[in-house]
Backbone:
C-alpha cells in the first residue's frame, strides 16, 4: 500500500479541528494540525503536505493572506479554503491566489472528502 | 403686533375712490373740462348779454324814432293831448314798455302813458339836454323795480321848435332771455360732461381696467404657485406686450420649477436608493457575521452527527435521533443561506466608466450637508482621466461612503481634497496605514484627504471590521461596504492616518485594458473547478 496522502488542517476552532482530524484520519489520510498561521508556517517548513485544508477566518493572518506564502514555500501542496457561506469576494480572491478548492461552512463531511479527493487528482469514488 | 397694516385711512371712501385709477383719471379730466368749458361759457354768455343789451337798445331806438315821427306828425296836424294820449295808450301794449312820455319844447309833459305799477316819469336834465341839443340819448335808469332802459328822441315841434319823446323799457325780457340762455348752456354742458364721463369710464374700463384686472389675477395666480397660468390678452399695445412678457415669464418660471422638481426628485430617488442599499447591506453584514460565527459550531455538530451516522448500523433503533440532528442543522444552514442570498449585493455590472462624473454626482448630493457643516469638498481632478472598469452605481455608493466619513471627520471650515496621483498626500512620518484588496496591473488612484483628527494605529486596524465605528453614531458598515465593493472591482483601498492631522483614503481601481471595450465582467475561469456548496 502506497504512502497515505498527508493533510494539514489549519483552523483556530479546536472542535472543528478535532472533527476534521477524526474524519480524515478515519479515511486513512496522514494528518497534522495547526491552530493559526504561525503554527501552519512552522508545520510546512518542517515537512510538505499534499493538501492544506485551511480556515479563512483566524486570528492573525487570515487564510487568504497565507495562500501566497504557502504557494511559494510548497508549490506542490493543494490548498483548500474554508469559510462561511456567501463570502463570494473571499472565494474569488482565494481562487485568484491559487486555492484549488473551496468549502462553504457548514459543509457535509462527504463534500469535504470529495473536495480532497479532487484536489489529490483521484477518482472521487476511490478510497486511498 | 407691530406689523404694518394697510388699514384704510380716515375718510375711507375717499381714499378708496382715489385708489381706483379710473376714478382718479375721470375726476381729473372732468375738472379740466369743467374749467375750460366754464371759462368758455362765461365769455360766451357775457358776449351774449352784451349783444342782447345792444339789440334791446337798438329795438328801443328804432321804436322811439318811429314813434317820434308819428308823434311829430300828429302834433303838427294839431292833435289834442287827449288824442295823443290815446295813441300812447295803444302803444303801451308793446311788451316791456313801462312808460312813454311826450315833452313839449319847454320840457312840459304833453301826453303820458305809464304802466300800472310804475311811477310816472318827470322831465329831468337828460330830457332838457335832448331838447336843447336835438340829439337822441340813451341811458340806464336804476329803479326799485329793476333796471330800465331810457331812450329820449327829439322831434320837430311846430314852429321850428323841438319836442322829445321818452320811452322807458324794462330790461326784464332781456334778463329772462339771458337767464334762459345761461340755463340752456349749463344744462347742455352738464349733459355733454355726463356723456363724456360715461364714455371715459367705459373706455378705461374696457381698455385699461379690465386687462389690468386680468393681469392682476394672473399675477396673483402665479404668486400662489399656479405657474401654468397664462393671460389671454391679444393686443398690440403696451398692455398686450405686458401680457406677452408676463406669459413668457410664467413659462420660464414653470420650466425652471419643473427642472428643480425633477432634480429634487432625482436626488431623493438617489438618496432612497443609497439608504435602501445601506439597509440591505447592514442586514447582509449582520447575516454574514452570524454565518461566520455559527458556521463552525454548526459544522462541528453536523460533522459529528455524520460520523455517528456512519458508525451506527442503519437498523439501529436510536438512529432517528441522528437523522433529526442532521435535518435540523441543515435547516439552520438553509435559513442563513436564504438570509445571505436575500441581502447579498448583486455582482458588479462592470463597464468602462470615467470617475469624474460619478464623483461630481456624489459631491452634488452632499452639497447641502457639506454647506451646513461649513466643509468644502474640492474635486482637484483633471478631465481626461483614463476610464476604469467599474459599476457606476456601486462606485457612487463607495464614494458616498468615503466622502460621508471625511465630512464627519472634518472640523467646520475644513476642506476635503479629492485628487489623483501615485504618492500619498500625507507625509510618511507618524503615518499608519491599512490596505485591503489587491490591484494588479495599471490602475487609477483616487485620494480623499480630510483635515480631521485622524486615527490612532489601533483604531485604523479595525476600521474595516463590520460594526466598528469611531463616530459613535455610525452603523459601522460604511467601510466594510467600501471594502466589499473594492474587492468586487478587483481594486484595493488603502487608509492612511496621522492623529491630529487627518486621514487619507487611496482607492486604486484597475484601468480598462488597452483595446478592450467596456463589456461584461468575465467570470473567473476557474470558477467551475472550485467546489461550491453542494445541494
Residues:
Amino acid at each position: 500500500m502506497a504512502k497515505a496522502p498527508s493533510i494539514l488542517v489549519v483552523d483556530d476552532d479546536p472542535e472543528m479541528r478535532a472533527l476534521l482530524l477524526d474524519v480524515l484520519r478515519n479515511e486513512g489520510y496522514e494528518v497534522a494540525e495547526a491552530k493559526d498561521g504561525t503554527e501552519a508556517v512552522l508545520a510546512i517548513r518542517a515537512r510538505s503536505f499534499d493538501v492544506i485544508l485551511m480556515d479563512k477566518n483566524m486570528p492573525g493572518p487570515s487564510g487568504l493572506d497565507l495562500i501566497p506564502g504557502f504557494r511559494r514555500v510548497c508549490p506542490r501542496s493543494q490548498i483548500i479554503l474554508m469559510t462561511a457561506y456567501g463570502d463570494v469576494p473571499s472565494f474569488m480572491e482565494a481562487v485568484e491566489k491559487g486555492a484549488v478548492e473551496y468549502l462553504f461552512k457548514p459543509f457535509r463531511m462527504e463534500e469535504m472528502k470529495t473536495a480532497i479527493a479532487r484536489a489529490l487528482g483521484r477518482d472521487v469514488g476511490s478510497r486511498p | 403686533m407691530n406689523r404694518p397694516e394697510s388699514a384704510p385711512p380716515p375718510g375711507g371712501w375717499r381714499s378708496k375712490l382715489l385708489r381706483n385709477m379710473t376714478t382718479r383719471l375721470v375726476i381729473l379730466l372732468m375738472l379740466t373740462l369743467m374749467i375750460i368749458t366754464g371759462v368758455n361759457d362765461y365769455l360766451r354768455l357775457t358776449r351774449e348779454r352784451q349783444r342782447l343789451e345792444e339789440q334791446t337798445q337798438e329795438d328801443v331806438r328804432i321804436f322811439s324814432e318811429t314813434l317820434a315821427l308819428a308823434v311829430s306828425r300828429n302834433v303838427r296836424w294839431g292833435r289834442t293831448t287827449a288824442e295823443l294820449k290815446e295813441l300812447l295808450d295803444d302803444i303801451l301794449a308793446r311788451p316791456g314798455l313801462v312808460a312813454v312820455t311826450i315833452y313839449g319844447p319847454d320840457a312840459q309833459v304833453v301826453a303820458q302813458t305809464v304802466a300800472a305799477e310804475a311811477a310816472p316819469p318827470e322831465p329831468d336834465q337828460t330830457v332838457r339836454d335832448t331838447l336843447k341839443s336835438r340829439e337822441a340819448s340813451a341811458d340806464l335808469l336804476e329803479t326799485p323795480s329793476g333796471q330800465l332802459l331810457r331812450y329820449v328822441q327829439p322831434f320837430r315841434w311846430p314852429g321850428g321848435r323841438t319836442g322829445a319823446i321818452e320811452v322807458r323799457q324794462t330790461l326784464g325780457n332781456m334778463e329772462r332771455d339771458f337767464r334762459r340762455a345761461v340755463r340752456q348752456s349749463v344744462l347742455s354742458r352738464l349733459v355733454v360732461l355726463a356723456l363724456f364721463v360715461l364714455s371715459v369710464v367705459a373706455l378705461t374700463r374696457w381698455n385699461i381696467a379690465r386687462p389690468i384686472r386680468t393681469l392682476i389675477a394672473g399675477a396673483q395666480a402665479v404668486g400662489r404657485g399656479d405657474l401654468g397660468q397664462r393671460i389671454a390678452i391679444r393686443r398690440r399695445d403696451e398692455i398686450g406686450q405686458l401680457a406677452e412678457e408676463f406669459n413668457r415669464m410664467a413659462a420660464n418660471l414653470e420650466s425652471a420649477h419643473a427642472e428643480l422638481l425633477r432634480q429634487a426628485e432625482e436626488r431623493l430617488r438617489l438618496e432612497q436608493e443609497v439608504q435602501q442599499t445601506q439597509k440591505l447591506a447592514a442586514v447582509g453584514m449582520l447575516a454574514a457575521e452570524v454565518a461566520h460565527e455559527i458556521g463552525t459550531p454548526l459544522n462541528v455538530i453536523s460533522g459529528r452527527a455524520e460520523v455517528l451516522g456512519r458508525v451506527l448500523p442503519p437498523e439501529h433503533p436510536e438512529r432517528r435521533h441522528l437523522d433529526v440532528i442532521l435535518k435540523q442543522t441543515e435547516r439552520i444552514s438553509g435559513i442563513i443561506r436564504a438570509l445571505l442570498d436575500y441581502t447579498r449585493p448583486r455582482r458588479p455590472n462592470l463597464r468602462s466608466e470615467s470617475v469624474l462624473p460619478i464623483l461630481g454626482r456624489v459631491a452634488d448630493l452632499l452639497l447641502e450637508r457639506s454647506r451646513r457643516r461649513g466643509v468644502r469638498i474640492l474635486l482637484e481632478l483633471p478631465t481626461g482621466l483614463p476610464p476604469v472598469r467599474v459599476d457606476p452605481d456601486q462606485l457612487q455608493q463607495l464614494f458616498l461612503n468615503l466622502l460621508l466619513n471625511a465630512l464627519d471627520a472634518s472640523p467646520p471650515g475644513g476642506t476635503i481634497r479629492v485628487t489623483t496621483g501615485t504618492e500619498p498626500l500625507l507625509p510618511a512620518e507618524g503615518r499608519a496605514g491599512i490596505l485591503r484588496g489587491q490591484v494588479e496591473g495599471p490602475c487609477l488612484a483616487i485620494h480623499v484627504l480630510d483635515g480631521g483628527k485622524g486615527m490612532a494605529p489601533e483604531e485604523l486596524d479595525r476600521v474595516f471590521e463590520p460594526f466598528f465605528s469611531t463616530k459613535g453614531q455610525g452603523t459601522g458598515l460604511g467601510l466594510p461596504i467600501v471594502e466589499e465593493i473594492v474587492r468586487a472591482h478587483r481594486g484595493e483601498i488603502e487608509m492612511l492616518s496621522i492623529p491630529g492631522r487627518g486621514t487619507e483614503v487611496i482607492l486604486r481601481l484597475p484601468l480598462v485594458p488597452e483595446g478592450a471595450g467596456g463589456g461584461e465582467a468575465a467570470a473567473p475561469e476557474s470558477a467551475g473547478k472550485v467546489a461550491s456548496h453542494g445541494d
User: Anything to note?
Assistant: Residues 1-9, 517-535 of chain B have pLDDT under 50 and may be disordered. Residues 238-311 of chain B form the longest helix (74 residues).
